[in-house]
Design goal:
The protein is α/β, with parallel strands linked by helices. It has twelve helices and eight strands. It has three domains: 3-12 and 77-135 and 143-166 and 310-327, Rossmann fold; 21-68, no CATH class; 170-302, Rossmann fold (3-Layer(aba) Sandwich), CATH 3.40.50.1400. 49% of the residues lie in helices and 14% in strands. α5 links the parallel β3 (126-131) and β4. α6 crosses α8. GO terms for molecular function: ferrochelatase activity; metal ion binding.
Length: 330
């Protein structure tokens, strides 16, 4: 079987179809009903979600999405589609054969099942799945595997390989560091650098999830590549949800403290996000700036993620190519 019969599914978390309360509620319902994300028995969680959470969060989240929505749609979807097209081109150039690459969302559209169906229609027999989560977590990568297993019943592939993580991949580390350094070359360097990762409930980490350890490893490698592996760099965790204890330190609390301490210029980068999205553009670039300045801070910079930069796409291509042999190792 030739490599041209292989398809690549490039997966990110997801986004609403539009920044309206109805669309956001539909998206959040799918996301927050995933038992990998909210570990409360469904019989208890369903009424809480549908009668207490969604009626409130649908409207407030829609207003947040409106602040970052582009003429082309959700930033995450726009970048994911660009990344898929560029990955197809980069891989084709390296392999000298066209490999189909399809974008998919774990939640929302296009779904993982729809992406698999499209690749089956293109006569693909083997499937490489590349979740755009640099650090592994059961709430992200394992959830993608759940969706794949369900879709396999209707769109079966002879062989499937899922890239588990790339938190310490040299190409990823260098691409993130280059992205930060390129920003600094244009805008100068800060006094402090905050590397903010998405948070997780502490209970998940206590249960053995390697996510927090991998985040710290990524941060150390990126800071070392920058020559900033010292007290100037702070690792934080954002996007807390609910009343459970989450891993910390919390990004908003650190930004408030740095503002209060008059720490000088503070730059924030988000190495755990492969695309700019609500969590980076609204939570950090807008709300994070407000938090920092409200506490007395003066100069705040949000450094955009790697998105579709050439260095990142080159690294992503290498990750995909290095994984292809695992589909043919028997």
């Amino acid at each position: 079987m030739g490599i041209e019969r292989t398809g690549v599914l490039l997966v990110n978390l997801g986004t609403p179809d539009e920044p309206t309360p109805r669309a956001v509620r539909r998206y959040l319902r799918e996301f927050l009903m995933d038992p990998r994300v909210v570990q409360i028995p469904p019989v208890l969680w369903w009424p809480i979600l549908n009668f207490l959470v969604l009626p409130f969060r649908g409207g407030t989240s829609a207003e947040k999405y409106k602040q970052v929505w582009t003429p082309d749609g959700s930033p995450l979807r726009v970048y994911l589609e660009r990344q898929a097209q560029m990955l197809k081109g980069y891989m084709g150039e390296r392999l000298k054969v066209a490999i189909p690459v399809v974008a998919a969302m774990r939640y929302g559209k296009p779904s993982i099942a729809a992406g698999m169906a499209e690749l089956k229609e293109r006569n693909c027999k083997r499937l490489l799945v590349l979740p755009l989560y640099p650090q592994y977590s059961a709430s992200t990568t394992a959830s993608v595997e759940d969706a794949l297993a369900k879709a396999q019943k209707y769109h079966p592939f002879g062989r499937v390989h899922v890239v588990q993580d790339f938190h310490d991949n040299a190409g990823y580390v260098k691409a993130v560091a280059k992205n930060i350094n390129d920003y600094w070359m244009k805008h100068g360097r800060p006094d402090r650098l905050v590397l903010s990762f998405h948070g997780l409930p502490k209970a998940m980490i206590d249960a053995g999830d390697p996510y927090k350890t991998q985040c710290h490893t990524s941060a150390r490698l990126i800071a070392t590549e920058l020559g900033w592996n010292d007290a100037r760099t702070i690792v934080t965790f954002q996007s807390r949800f609910g009343k459970a204890e989450w891993i910390g330190p919390a990004t908003d609390e650190v930004l408030s403290r740095l503002g209060w301490e008059k720490a000088g210029r503070v730059d924030v980068a988000c190495p755990g996000f492969a695309s700019d999205c609500l969590e980076t553009l609204e939570e950090i670039a807008i709300e994070g700036r407000k938090t920092f300045r409200a506490a007395g801070g003066k100069e705040f910079h949000y450094i955009p993620t790697t998105n579709d930069t050439p260095a990142w796409m080159t690294a992503l291509t290498a990750i995909a190519l290095d994984s292809l042999p695992l589909l043919y190792d028997r």
